Amino acid sequence: MYGIPGGGKSQLILQFAKYIHEFNPDCNVFHIDATNRESLVQGFQVIHALLQLPHESRQDIMTEMVKNWLTRCYPGGWLLLVDNVVSIGLVQQFLPAGDSGIILFTMRDEIAAKSLGGGGTLELSCMDTNESVDLILKGADIDPSTASANEFEQAAALGRELGGLPLALDQSATCIYYRRWSLSEYLDLLRREKVKALTVKSIAGSKTVHEVFTLALMNLDPVSVILLKLIVHLDWHNIPTALLKAGTQKIKLVPPAPDVTTSFQKSTMRGCICGGIRAATRRLFHQSSSDGSCLDTTEPPLQSGCGHLSCSSPTIRQLFCSSEELEKAISNLHAAALVNRKQDASIWLHDLVYEMIMDLLEESERRQFAKLAVTLCDCYFPASEIIKDPVSWVECEAASCHAITSMRNIKEIGVVLGQTYHLQSKVALYYHSRARYTEAMNLFRAALNGFRAMCGAQHPFTLDTERNIGDVYFHLACKYEMEEWFGEGQDTENGVHGNHH
Question: Which residue from 68, 155, 239, 256 puts its CA 20 to 30 A from 437's CA?
Fold first, then answer.
């Protein structure tokens, strides 16, 4: 079984084990954690003790003794639950030969599932509305047959807020039950502080969805972390890989300074768990991009569609050094089930993954990656001269969603970036071509204010934008406003070049 963190894989195999044991009480059921070699060895030591096998102090021989026992055809049979598989090669060293029992694996990686799952695979996806409502009501000890219409509506709203993620739904329902909260009280908390709500433990010792996600994040390499930070500054529901690859083709990165080094180390991060998973993950996220990277915004933007990213971060440079490196980072995130692939060569994030990542970002990182997202969108958006061609409209529509998201982010955090005004102009031209004049006018005006402040009233970017605004008024049949804007632009050009230029 494979799927997103919090998809309910571990809960499902444990429920299956309970069913098997009730059906066949003589069946031996073993559960081991396959996160790493240490956990596998520890799991086999427990099995060795349960089976009361001859005493042995050497771990490798103890493991072989357990494998030999499992290989023998035992009358009652056995069920081995191998949970949280990370490495196929590592797990295969611990698997018994033969087919005297049943092995169930859980992992996030689809490729690993298909490699190990000789008896078939099962992907656990998010629950639909009806399933979510049923789980929440039963978990909160509310009988669905007697629940009110208001309770059904609030349970459905909870399901939507949590994106149908089984572990999050179960955690929320249990929290409501044990803390004696109403559905409306928990829904209010979730809407106000979603990440905080997902850290609340319902039962001592239980694992929250926040802990599941943060542990998954801590196993990522620095380049994959960088990509995750960038993705959340785009429209995370549908990101074409071509958009990300535009960075490898057009974004120009300044070489790193000689004294800049990357401070990220996995071993250090794992040692920070004693100080709290959330604190450790925050430190990981900060270290992976705190190696001195910035965007140079001191000069006017001289060219659209070619990102001039002044960046001394070796990790960001590595991400965009080639399409192969970018694909490797995407594959790593997909293997960790933090992003999902679509058949149309795009990827998407679950809403809760987005919420978790945004909660972990420092303010300086938000500024940095908001700039990078805008620069990337400007590189990806079709050039101004081909936007009016209807052939390009499908591509423009797909790119506009990410452009709008990135521009909204950069506005919210108060960052001034010249590339933003180029992007506003191109999206406005597309809206203009599609007769979406109100949207086009708003973006043209925003671009005009930016060009005037950064380049001055007489700069060609400013004058082109004024003419574009006049053209919008022309199509709206606003004769007075059209003449005013065309006249203002003409007066400015006459002052610069003379009346006969």
Answer: 239
Structure tokens at 195: 């990440």
DSSP for residue 44 = H
Exposed/middle/buried for residue 414 (C-beta within 10 Å: 0-12, 13-18, 19+): exposed
Residue 233 has pLDDT above 80, yes or no: yes
CA distance 186 to 158: 9
The residues, any chain, with a CB within 8 Å of residue 18's CB and separated by 6 or more, are none
CA dist 9 and 5 (Å) reads 8
Taking the C-alpha atoms of residue 489 and residue 83, their distance in angstroms, rounded to an integer, is 68
Listed residue (20, 10, 165, 8) closest to 102, CA to CA: 20
In sign, the C-alpha dihedral spanning 147, 153, 156, 158 is: negative
Single out the residue of 230, 237, 243 nearest to residue 378, CA to CA: 243
CA–chain centroid gap for 200, Å, is: 22
Q: Which amino acid is it at 448?
A: L
What whole-number distance in Å separates Cα of residue 98 and Cα of residue 92?
13
Averaged pLDDT score across all residues of the chain: 82
Cβ neighbors of 5 (< 8 A, separation 6 or more) are 108, 167, 209, 212, 213, 216, 336, 337, 338
Strands (E), 267-368: 308-309, 340-342, 346-348
pLDDT of residue 154: 94
Q: Which of 284-288, 354-358, 438-442 has the weakest average pLDDT?
A: 284-288
CA distances from 452 to 86, 302, 412, 464 (A): 54, 14, 21, 11
Q: Let me know: does 183 contact 156? Beta carbons within 8 Å.
A: no
Q: Measuring CA to CA, how many Å separate 238 from each of 63, 348, 350?
A: 45, 5, 10
313 close to 261: Cβ distance less than 8 angstroms? no
pTM of the model: 0.75
The sign of the torsion formed by the CA atoms of 394, 395, 398, 399 equals negative
Residue 346 structure tokens: 């795009």
> What are the two backbone dihedrals, phi and then psi, of residue 90, each rounded to the nearest 5 degrees?
-65, -45
**For residue 410, what is the enclosing H or E element?**
helix 393-412
Amino acid at 430: Y
Give per-residue pLDDT as tens, 287-334: 555 544 444 433 444 455 555 555 557 788 788 888 888 999 998 898
Element (H, E) at 78: strand 78-85
Task: Check residue 429 and give its pLDDT.
Answer: 94
Judged against a pLDDT cut of 60, whether residue 273 lies above it is answered with no
Contacts with 481 (C-beta within 8 Å, 6 or more apart), sequence order: 470, 473
For the segment 454-475, what is each residue's pLDDT rounded down to a tens digit? Answer: 888 888 898 889 889 988 998 8
Among 33, 70, 73, 25, CA closest to 48: 70
